[in-house]
Batch of 2 targets.
Target 1
Amino acid sequence: MEIKEYVKQQKEALIKEISELKVTPSFVIMQVNDDPASNAYIKGKIKDANEVGIQVELKKFPIDISEADLLKEIEKVNNDSRIHGLIVQMPLPKHINEEKVKLAVSPKKDIDGFHPLSSINPCTPKGIIDYLKSEHTDFVGKNAVVIGRSNIVGKPLAHLLLKENCNVTILHSKTKREDMERYIANADIIAIAIGRCEFLDDSFSYKPTATIVDVGINRTEEGLKGDAKRGLPVALQTPVPGGVGLLTRLSLLKNLLEAYHHEIKD
Ligand code: NAP
């Protein structure tokens, strides 16, 4: 099923599930920047939440808020049982330590899945695995190659693929071209998250049965493009735009519900 249709159906299921809950699930977004990309992401998150009946509050703080004051604000939300999730939109100003902030968010409310103690998975890898499962992807004993090793995509995605019993290889900027070609030619699942426009192209060989998951978002004069050239000779390739970005947004809503159910249970 196309990702757009899959997301539409998943959202319909969420709307039904949320409408039957006694307490409305809610989350807070904290923003300490005036970054246009962040504004667009936040707008998307608010729209998605409203669409499925989740309450969301944006708390925008002045750019010169001190780290200590921001941590106090986080603590307030951590202790407020009426709020089930908390996102601190990155990037933060230079005088605020991002790692400290990520660790300050209660693991129970960490719907981004950034906290090491959080049982919630980061949105992009979770969205990818959920979608591949819906496509009946065969994971067990398959060769999965993850290109890119960021903490928000590459590493957690490799971890989730390993949990599904794939043979996982992580490639990165120090991987030699000849090795990359060898791994890619032998891969059943290739996930690329490097931010290099159309890095995967016809110069590589692919298994015709392979799946390519294109996480990359590259802004070009011709519009948004992925890390993989469109139309590669494989069985399934996720598009950009209209691909992993939509899965990531869907995961945030699902993560909020997961946090909500934890909270209610407690
Ligand atoms: P990142 O922090 O920008 O790191 C890039 C990774 O790519 C690094 O691990 C780097 O290797 C590797 N890399 C760079 N050039 C490479 C090359 N030529 N060959 C092999 N590996 C290379 O990564 P990110 O935050 O995961 O973002 C990656 C891309 O995904 C970006 O385009 C971003 O916009 C997009 N993204 C999309 C979504 C979505 O929802 N669709 C979500 C998150 C990110 P080293 O570690 O060796 O430097």
Note: The first helix runs from residue 3 to 19.
Target 2
Amino acid sequence: MPDQPHTHQILNPATEEVVATVPATGAAEVDTAVVRAAGAQRRWAAAAPADRARLLRRFAAVVDGHVEELARLEVKEAGHTLGNARWEAGNVRDLLDYAAGGVERLTGRQIPVAGGLDITLLEPLGVVGVIAPWNFPMPIAAWGTAPALAAGNAVLLKPAETTPLTALRLAELALEAGLPEHLFQVLPGAGDITGQALVEHPGVAKIVFTGSTRVGKEIMARGARLLKRVTLELGGKSPNIVFADADIERAAAEAPMAFLDNAGQDCCARTRVLVQRTAYDRFLELLTPAVRSVVVGDPSDEKTQMGPLISRVQLERVRGYVPDDRAAVRGSAPGGPGFWFPPTVLTGVAADDPAVTEEIFGPVAVVLPFDDEEDAIRLANDTAYGLSGSLWTRDIGRALRVSRAVAAGNLSVNSHSSVRYSTPFGGYKQSGVGRELGPDALTAFTETKNIFISTEA
Ligand code: NAD
């Protein structure tokens, strides 16, 4: 294993100032954390379901009382706009409340059989490892953590190297709310050390991972040696399909933030804008001023719509996809320190260009024309990914036909929404394995046990 630095410096991506220095968790400390978590989990699983639900609701209430503080921390460490960061902290609260409602409804079944009674139990897995990315540090940490705790598990959360601060604060708030010690621990550190130690630890029953497809595949392969359960939420290259019969004004007005929100560092970003040829010129005419009017700047300013990228590494990665002379539309971005990249739209790009095929994870979209419904579906599915997508049309039959034909886990019609805590989320193809959120979220953190009880005299 590579050497791990003892600490990670956390930079404010808007200013490049050091915000904090955070100690990294070594493999031996992961071991200790697993042992402690296992003990806490046994006691947690044995507690009355009503008490577990009450504690999770209390955790939600404490988070609610700290939404502003958590949001400001997220602005500082991740460069998220203040509005987004407030929503993200509120999402953690909502996830905890929603999961708490499931604790007492995690019922098994009674199945009719001959000669006895057959019941199924949904038992907790034990210790769950949640490996979170930097793009939505708080919500994604909570997507795994809240239902896992609700189903009776302990959670070890490894935040991304660049964004551990809100996770560490959430662990403090959990203790303040009265959650048992060691039940929810945050282990900051490098992916290939702390993360890998969780993946390879026999005491960790499941890994919930969100991040790149490359690392997701590696985790699945390493975890397979122990037949580890995994949920993987990976990359995307999602289409935004605009038919000529749509409300073109609205589709063009809403297209920019569908790929610029969070500076494009969103696995659901609609970065392939597919426009029916007969509406193509009109759409571009409307899209251009809409992209240019997006307010890019200081993320702590209430009016800002888009902040910086997370890091210099990410900035260089995004730059690599956009040679200077190539953009059809470019918005503005501040100069000076910070990891800034302007909103960018590319047109006339070949179908096999990396800007069309690869997840850029920056504020860059390509616009491609299509001829008819069949062509739109072909283009939409011409990708290794299948996370989300949008389609704009006034024809309800077409909306349903195309929604069924696009191989992706989350589609929206005449809208760009894809993530709600109460509805399932996850990817087709190389966008992932398994689903998170929604009514079945807790079940993903259980094993089903079947018991037959003979009634023979
Ligand atoms: P990444 O996949 O390397 O990191 C995500 C998380 O996994 C981090 O916590 C990291 O420390 C951890 N990790 C890394 N290697 C690991 C390993 N071998 N074992 C266990 N854990 C490990 O993502 P990144 O390098 O930060 O970003 C690279 C690209 O990934 C981005 O440009 C983007 O395309 C994509 N990405 C996608 C999402 C998403 O939500 N789908 C999120 C982040 C990044």
Note: The CA atoms of residues 239 and 272 lie 5 Å apart.
